[in-house]
Design goal:
The protein is 20% helix and 34% strand. It is α+β, with helices and mostly antiparallel strands and 364 residues long.
Length: 364
């Protein structure tokens, strides 16, 4: 692919309280394009760039019928500009590339060919390809060999092997033109029946009269009591909970150089952990003595696959007890301790930075 390394910067990972998917950035419009089902139930989402910078983005418009959504990032992204390739210029057996974050994993690219330029599925025409498209790729771009956007990939159709689909670029361009009908850039919904633009919450479409799932289309999903507790704790740390969401009751954020994860463990525990550093190549005795001395109570230090972790685990039931505020305090303190301790382990014991540590905040 032409200038692949540079062009891949347009692809972003999108994370919500429901899961993650992919998207792509249009520099000339300062808009991110993704699938509706990736952001469904959210009006603000986390967008992660290729250099692991997380940016809060606002959902501008959703189109359930086409499974499209447009987002506005809080700041412009450092990505190149690229154009669209109209469907009329695409031929069967043309080479295509699928870019995205399958299963929430790091960025990948798969290669294939166009099997059909106009495959009818569910009443809409899609580009069919033999390139692998998996959950997590949803919302990412299908690109041509010369770096043009052919369409937006979707993993909604998973009943057959070696078959992937993308909504053609022509549909995306048409919907982008529709943004001009919403000059105030308010959150808007395209009617699933007639594609009419709706800006205010309503039970019935103003154009065709179809009954709408108003609460689903216009309202944000409610957080569980546990999620409310965790996100209130994050706010006390000065962390925006929206950009920390990384799936169902799972959060991931940086405190300085330390990557902190909060999640449910074995259905009974709230677990907070941070992969701080790699074991040193020599002189391990003093480090082992330090770890075994249990120096960071109520937190614990452990080693897994050559990585030193700091962790904290509590029963979920305790969060509703008189220990609630103590647990909240410990969540906050673990993040601070991880950011402090990783430097100590490197300077005093010769450890090395873990792959998860944030490069910009690594102590040189």
């Amino acid at each position: 692919m032409k200038d692949f390394k540079e062009l891949s910067k347009i692809v972003v990972k999108i994370s919500t309280a429901s899961g993650s998917g992919s998207g792509f950035y249009l520099k000339n419009m300062d808009i991110i394009v993704t699938n509706h089902h990736v952001v469904s139930g959210n009006k603000s989402v986390a967008v992660e760039t290729q250099d692991k910078d997380k940016i809060k983005s606002t959902v501008l418009q959703i189109n359930p019928l086409l499974d499209l959504a447009f987002l506005k990032p809080a700041k412009p992204l450092g990505a190149p500009d690229t154009g669209f390739l109209p469907l009329e210029k695409l031929k069967d057996r043309d080479k295509v590339y699928i870019l995205g974050f399958p299963f929430g994993m790091p960025f990948t690219v798969t290669e294939g060919i166009v099997s059909s330029t106009k495959q009818l599925v569910g009443g809409l025409h899609y580009i069919q390809t033999d390139a692998a498209i998996n959950p997590g790729n949803s919302g990412g771009p299908m690109m041509s060999a010369d770096g043009k956007i052919i369409g937006i990939t979707t993993s909604k159709f998973m009943d057959a092997e070696n078959m992937g689909f993308a909504l053609p670029a022509d549909q995306i361009m048409s919907e982008l033109e529709g943004l001009k009908n919403n000059p105030s850039v308010a959150y808007s919904v395209k009617c699933p029946s007639c594609n009419f633009l709706l800006i205010e919450k309503t039970e019935y479409c103003d154009n065709c009269g179809s009954k709408l799932e108003a609460d689903v289309l216009f309202s944000e999903q409610k957080l569980s009591p546990l999620a409310v507790f965790v996100e209130e704790s994050l706010q006390k740390m000065g962390i925006d909970p929206v950009i920390s969401r990384n799936g169902v009751e799972y959060w991931e954020f940086y405190k300085g150089s330390a990557l902190v994860r909060v999640f449910i463990y074995r259905t009974n525990y709230l677990y907070t952990t941070c992969p701080m550093v790699k074991l040193p190549k020599a002189n391990l005795t003093e480090l082992y003595k330090f770890i075994l001395s249990d120096p960071v109570k109520p937190f614990s230090l452990g080693i897994d696959r050559g990585i030193v972790y700091i962790s904290y685990r509590v029963y979920l039931a305790d969060i509703d007890s008189s220990h609630k505020e103590e647990i909240r305090k410990n969540l906050i303190n673990l993040a601070n301790k991880a950011d402090e301790l990783d430097n100590i382990l490197i300077d005093k014991y010769g450890c090395e930075w873990s792959e998860e540590a944030k490069p910009d905040d690594k102590k040189k």
